[in-house]
Amino acid sequence: MKQGEHTFPFKFLIPASAPTSFEGNYGRIIYxxxxxxxxxxxxxxxxxxxxxYLLSLxxxxxxxxxxxxxxxxVTQQFTYMLMKTGTVVMKAQxxxxxxxxxxxIQVTVSIYNQSGKNTGNMGASLMQRVTYETKRxxxxxxxxxxxxxxxxxxxxxxxxxxxxxxxxxxxxxxxGCDLIKIEYYVKVCLKSPDVMLTLPIHIGNVxxxxxxxxxxxxxxxxSDCAENTAACVFPPDNATSATTPPLTSRSTPKPAPxxxxxxxxxxxxxxxxxxxxxPKEHGGSTTDGSFPSKxxxxxxxxxxxxxxxxxxxxQTQKDSGPVRxxxxxxxxxxxxxxxxxxxxxxxxxxxxxxxxxxxxxxESCNA
Length: 367
Description:
By secondary structure, this protein is mostly beta strands. The protein is built from 5 helices and 14 strands. Helix content is 9%, strand content 29%. It has a 6-stranded mixed sheet, with no helix packed on it. Belongs to the arrestin family.
């Protein structure tokens, strides 16, 4: 090799089965590129290396049995005051089985205290369990986030709804690696009596697309309903002639159908402003600022909660330990504000003076 600067464009094809990079307490998956110069005998070889991160996306839509909520229930009997016994029934559920970083896990817990003693505080935690497959498997358990609720009084039934924000985490499965296994689950527990249940979930890179797997009620489209209704209201001609006597012929022609009212046709045009009395239909947000419940049900990113007083989130989350009370805040009152949209005016009128009259329809078309 002659003296000077030389460039060699080497290329490598990464196998499709290569697992995602991972680094844990008892094992890691790393990738690096090493370059070296093979010198003659009795000379020193020169080498250097560069590490890089490999990400193999986990599409949650391809995970089997991923649709629907994850629920579990447990019944626990306990003894208190040395002689008395009681029963606690706890049911827990998450809204989905798969999440991506930045989404919110909505946890619903129902507890029925069938005893004469108040229970301890309720709690929910997002847990990570990493299994290292060796001759003797090693387990690494870590708490990612933790929230805490209240108590349930004696003989009462209570429902607790909480939200846990999913931070930046490795994906659940490392495809192509049989030595490291990553699992996530939500642990719901009750202190005094000691009651616990787990709800397994998946953490991926591509979120669930509900349009790809609609509900069973959505299979019957509006066009199908219209065809079924038309078939019931207007039977075929042969069926009508068989059940009803033939009608006498009329000398006058049949009048043409009347045109629809003008107000119905206006619904096909996009108005620049809503009508005065806008009918309230199903769906959509309320306009009076009231909310049916105190907690939000949308899956939003952590940056959307920065407006809450005393609660702020940074763009880069540091993995320094469990997050306490990582729940979504209540929506602020009177937070809805309307922004007037600009009216669509002809170009001549917009560029002219405000006191000039707008051009006519013919002038706008001929311009």
